[in-house]
Each structure stands twice: as structure tokens, then as C-alpha cells.
């Protein structure tokens, strides 16, 4: 069986003051695990380059392409979000942009 591994990072465009990171990240969308998969929090609230973010790790029996298709479909329903796919070596990347946040999902196939 093929497994996919995905990392999801959600960024807010607005900066956050010290102590306000958790409050800022509460407004970010909550992406569940992909089908046939599970999710683990890496960081519920953190700051990277001054931006508040959350970070999750996903494992799925789906291929990397199947995982990204799932999130493309899930995030397009009734929204003004724009999405774009790209590649970074073995990783496939899905970028999702909305007015208040930016989501990236990195997925790659793992050896059987």
C-alpha cells in the first residue's frame, strides 16, 4: 500500500503580539486528517518569522496526489479561496490562499 505524509501549516497575515498567538491561531481553519489517515499536532500555536501559525503532521494510505485532491475538494466548497499546486523535490505542495490566512500542505509518497 502507498502512504502519504503531509505537513500542514496555516499562517495568519496579521502579526500577533506576545501572548496573543494562541488567540490568533484559534481563528485558523481546522483541517482534519485525510481519508484513511490520522493527524497529530506538531504545534497548536507558534510563531515563525513573526507570523502566528499551527502545524500538523498527517499520515494516510492514500497517495500524495490523493491527499492533495482531498484537501483541494474540502477547501473549495463555498469559499473564495484560491489554490495552486507545485513540486519541491519528492514533495507535492498545495497552497491555499484566503484573505485572512494561507495554508500549505506538503505531501510525498513513502516507500511501501
Structural summary, described in words:
By secondary structure, the protein is of the alpha+beta class. It has one domain (3-102). Helices cover 16% and strands 50% of the residues. The chain contains two helices and six strands, in the order βαββαβββ. It has a six-stranded antiparallel sheet with strand order 2-3-1-6-5-4. A hairpin with a 2-residue loop joins strand 4 and strand 5. The protein is globular. The N and C termini lie close together (6 Å). The relative contact order is 0.29. Mean pLDDT is 82; it is low at 12-16.
What attributes does this structure have?
2 helices, six-stranded antiparallel sheet, alpha+beta, 6 strands
Largest sheet: 6 strands, antiparallel
Order of helices and strands: EHEEHEEE
Distance N to C terminus: 6 Å
pLDDT averaged over residues = 82
Q: What's the total helix number?
A: 2
Query: Level of helix content?
Result: 10-25%
Question: What percentage of the residues does DSSP assign to strands (E)?
Answer: over 45%
- Order of strands across the main sheet: 2-3-1-6-5-4
Looking at the structure, what is the overall shape?
globular
pLDDT under 50 segments (min length 5)? 12-16
Q: What is the CA-atom radius of gyration, in angstroms?
A: 14 Å
Number of strands: 6
Whole-number total of structural domains: 1
Structural class: alpha+beta
Amino acid at each position: 500500500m502507498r502512504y502519504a505524509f503531509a505537513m500542514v501549516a496555516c499562517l495568519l497575515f496579521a502579526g500577533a503580539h506576545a501572548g496573543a498567538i494562541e488567540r490568533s491561531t484559534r481563528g485558523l481553519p481546522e483541517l482534519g486528517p485525510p481519508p484513511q489517515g490520522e493527524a497529530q499536532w506538531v504545534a497548536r500555536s507558534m510563531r515563525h518569522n513573526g507570523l502566528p501559525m499551527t502545524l500538523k503532521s498527517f499520515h494516510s494510505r492514500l497517495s500524495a496526489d490523493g491527499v492533495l485532491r482531498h484537501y483541494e475538494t474540502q477547501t473549495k466548497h463555498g469559499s473564495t479561496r484560491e489554490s495552486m499546486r507545485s513540486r519541491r523535490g519528492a514533495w507535492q505542495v498545495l497552497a491555499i490562499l484566503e484573505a485572512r490566512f494561507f495554508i500549505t500542505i506538503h505531501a510525498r509518497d513513502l516507500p511501501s
